[in-house]
């Protein structure tokens, strides 16, 4: 397996000694089929053990390793280095407070998610066995259920950057996922929550969330459907 | 930094709906504008007299006024929605909102004046 030389410029911030974030460049060698996560592991294991970043599943399903590479929000574990060439610029996700290096504070992100009640609300009598859903009903929620909560979309959303109180695309997508779920009875509660200046109306269909989503979920399209549902409900 | 979603007392659903409706109206009016300005004159030279006669017909001021209202609402609502994104302070929001409304009123006045002037012009 061929080795390639990589120049990785990483935004570092160690709260115990740094006043503000600064860039540090590492010159390393990795296999040519490496991912961004492999590069970070190489730096962490052999060059600088203080580098902090989140990782877990290495299979693009846990959503832990979302970060900004050469200006794009990606999952480090699934993104091959050759997508960006040999010069990498790695930063933490925008719009969140940095805890250390590439690790950001996701508490506000999950607080917003909790706000829209991200669980099934069932008022009707429970069925004896499972809930039956037709293919058409499943199609309604479709790929919106694929969200892995990596926060790449919310971090890419220009409406989120200046307004920390905006729910953001991930929470709104989750609201869509339950509002349009045939098994759920909590649509009215959720529609009331998202029908707000800091809710679904802060979305200006910029499409950044869709571009950033590692699961290629058509978030903007789902949010547009959610907006229509809110209007239909309030008319 | 606020760590939670703060629900406001204002919904944006009406503004969103009106923005879409005004966009559709603008599109229809734009087609009408093209037809009346560029295709009705087909086959003859556009003269001052012809323009003034058309401006004096009953449908001309109605079309222009509808255009003015739809464009002002659509444009200024868009500007306000951008300003709202970047202004969290209540005082500054009020300042920006007042400014947007004032610009709207001034442009409505100037636009209406122009339409009335065109309607009342007499062909020499």
Write a compact overview of the structure shown.
The complex is a heterodimer of chains A (235) and B (124). Chain A is of the alpha+beta class and 235 residues long. Helix content of chain A is 31%, strand content 16%.
Description of the molecule:
The complex is a heterodimer of chains A (235) and B (124). Helices cover 31% and strands 16% of the residues of chain A. In chain A, the strands form two sheets. Chain A has a five-stranded mixed sheet. Chain A is elongated, with a radius of gyration of 20 Å. Chain A is built from eight helices and seven strands; from the N terminus they run ββαβββββααααααα. By secondary structure, chain A is of the alpha+beta class. The model of chain A has no long low-confidence stretch (mean pLDDT 95). By secondary structure, chain B is mostly helical. Chain B has one domain (13-120): Fumarate reductase/succinate dehydrogenase, transmembrane subunit (3 helical TM bundles of succinate and fumarate reductases, Up-down Bundle), CATH 1.20.1300. In chain B, helix 1 (13-39) runs antiparallel to helix 3 and helix 3 (59-86) packs antiparallel against helix 4. The radius of gyration of chain B is 20 Å and the shape is elongated. The mean pLDDT of chain B is 86. The chains are: A alpha+beta (235), B mainly alpha (124). Chains A and B meet through helix 2 and helix 8 of A and helix 1 and helix 3 of B.
In terms of topology, how is this protein built?
The complex is a heterodimer of chains A (235) and B (124).
Chain A: E1 3-12, E2 22-31, H1 36-47, E3 66-69, E4 72-75, E5 87-91, E6 98-100, E7 103-104, H2 107-115, H3 135-141, H4 152-156, H5 168-179, H6 187-194, H7 208-212, H8 219-234
Helix pairs in contact in A: 2-5, 5-6, 5-8, 6-8
Chain B: H1 13-39, H2 48-55, H3 59-86, H4 90-120
Helix pairs in contact in B: 1-3, 3-4
């Amino acid at each position: 397996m061929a080795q390639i030389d990589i120049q990785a410029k990483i935004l570092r911030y160690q709260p115990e000694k740094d006043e503000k974030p600064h860039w540090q460049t590492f010159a390393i060698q990795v296999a040519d089929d490496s991912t961004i996560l492999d590069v970070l592991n190489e730096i962490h294991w052999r060059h600088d053990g203080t580098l902090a970043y989140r990782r877990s599943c290495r299979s693009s399903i846990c959503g832990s390793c979302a970060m900004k590479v050469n200006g794009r929000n990606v999952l480090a574990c699934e993104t091959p280095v050759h997508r960006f060439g040999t010069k990498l610029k790695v930063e933490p996700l925008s719009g969140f407070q940095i805890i250390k290096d590439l690790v950001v504070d996701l508490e506000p992100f999950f607080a917003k998610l909790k706000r829209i009640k991200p669980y099934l609300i069932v008022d009707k009598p429970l069925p004896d066995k499972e809930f039956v859903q037709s293919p058409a009903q499943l199609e309604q929620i479709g790929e919106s259920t694929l969200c892995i909560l990596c926060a790449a979309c919310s971090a890419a959303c220009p409406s989120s950057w200046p307004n920390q109180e905006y729910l953001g695309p991930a929470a709104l997508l989750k609201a869509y996922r339950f509002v349009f779920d045939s098994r759920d009875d909590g649509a009215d509660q959720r529609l009331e929550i998202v029908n707000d200046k800091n809710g679904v109306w802060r979305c200006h269909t910029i499409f950044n969330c869709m571009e950033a989503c590692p699961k290629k979920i058509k978030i903007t399209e789902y949010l547009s459907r959610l907006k229509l549902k809110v209007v239909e409900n309030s008319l | 930094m606020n760590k939670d979603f703060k629900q406001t007392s204002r919904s944006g659903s009406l503004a969103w709906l009106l923005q879409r409706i005004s966009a559709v109206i603008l599109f229809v009016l734009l087609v009408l504008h093209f037809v009346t300005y560029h295709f009705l004159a087909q086959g003859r030279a556009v003269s001052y007299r012809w323009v003034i006669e058309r401006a004096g017909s009953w449908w001309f001021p109605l079309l222009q006024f509808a255009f003015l209202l739809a464009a002002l609402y659509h444009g200024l609502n868009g500007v306000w929605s951008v300003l709202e994104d970047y202004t969290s302070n209540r005082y500054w929001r009020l300042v920006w909102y007042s400014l947007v409304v004032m610009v709207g009123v001034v442009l409505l006045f100037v636009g209406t004046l122009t339409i009335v002037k065109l309607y009342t012009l007499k062909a020499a």
